[in-house]
């Protein structure tokens, strides 16, 4: 899957193990690196497991159209499809089998 970052600061952090650990702690830094390996290896967003440990899940409310994967609780890696227009199913939902490009938005505790 093709991955881009919301901004250059976030990209710089994610491209350095040292910066990941400094910004998000040792445990989350390590977990982010594992999640990025999974995301990079996936052909589509559907290939990212909806079961733990990744637990890819759709967000709702003001974050509708975005997805998250689990990090060390309560943090999540928030992503969104990078397609215009979004690939949709007949029922109007996002067709995860056609999402091949994503944007890394942030690491958040949105609980």
Write the layout of secondary structure elements.
Layout: E1 2-5, H1 8-14, H2 17-41, E2 57-58, E3 67-70, E4 76-81, E5 101-108
Parallel strand pairs: 1-5
Antiparallel strand pairs: 2-3, 3-4, 4-5
List keywords for this structure.
111 residues, alpha+beta, YaeB-like fold, 5-stranded mixed β-sheet, globular
Describe the 3D structure.
The protein is an alpha+beta fold and 111 residues long. The chain has a single domain (2-108), classed as YaeB-like fold, CATH 3.30.2310. It contains 2 helices and 5 strands. It has helices spanning 8-14, 17-41, and strands at 2-5, 57-58, 67-70, 76-81, 101-108. A 5-stranded mixed β-sheet has the order 1-5-4-3-2. It is globular, with a radius of gyration of 14 Å. The model has no long low-confidence stretch (mean pLDDT 97).
